[in-house]
Design a protein that fits this description.
62% helix, mainly alpha, disordered C terminus, globular
């Protein structure tokens, strides 16, 4: 089994055999890690271990976030690969937390707030509307692209 598919297999076990709370947490982590994979980013084995502890109720989502943040703060000799996983790990924990929240409404203001929560400290433009085209070809669309909206005004005119 490849390392890329291993996380899916391990988290799927909680859905097959877990309690309702474990199922919900596992689905949130699968979505979070999967969204990183869609962007070509790979999470670390440490994140998977941390996610499993959260799913099993051993730690809270806030503790999971603290562990991931601390893990990278302590690693002053990060390799290029670890720098790539750092973004994926941090953003994955933030997505899992967001998905675990019960109240959610998708609006342009909420979209910007989510972007800020996910990417604060990762990108300087976190939570800001970019004024340029950010489309890219997606492997999941067989090389096609999704049209990205360049401003909130365009989003409001063309939902």
């Amino acid at each position: 089994m490849s390392a890329e598919k291993n996380w899916q297999f391990e988290l799927e076990e909680y859905i097959k055999q877990g309690e309702p709370d474990q199922i919900e947490k596992s689905e949130a982590w699968q979505t979070a890690i999967g969204l990183q994979a869609v962007d070509g980013l790979k999470t670390s084995a440490y994140l998977l271990d941390t996610a499993k502890e959260h799913i099993e109720g051993k730690i809270s989502i806030d503790e999971a976030q603290k562990r991931i943040q601390s893990y990278y703060e302590q690693r002053t000799d990060c390799t290029e690969i670890e720098n790539d996983t750092k973004e994926a790990d941090i953003v994955s924990t933030r997505i899992a937390k967001l998905l675990g929240e019960k109240a959610f409404r998708f609006s342009p203001a909420e979209w910007l707030m989510i972007h800020r929560r996910l990417f604060d400290g990762v990108f300087p433009h976190a939570g800001q509307v970019r004024q340029y085209n950010i489309t890219k070809k997606e492997w999941v669309l067989k090389g096609d692209t999704v049209t990205a909206l360049c401003s909130v005004e365009q989003y409001q005119r063309h939902p």
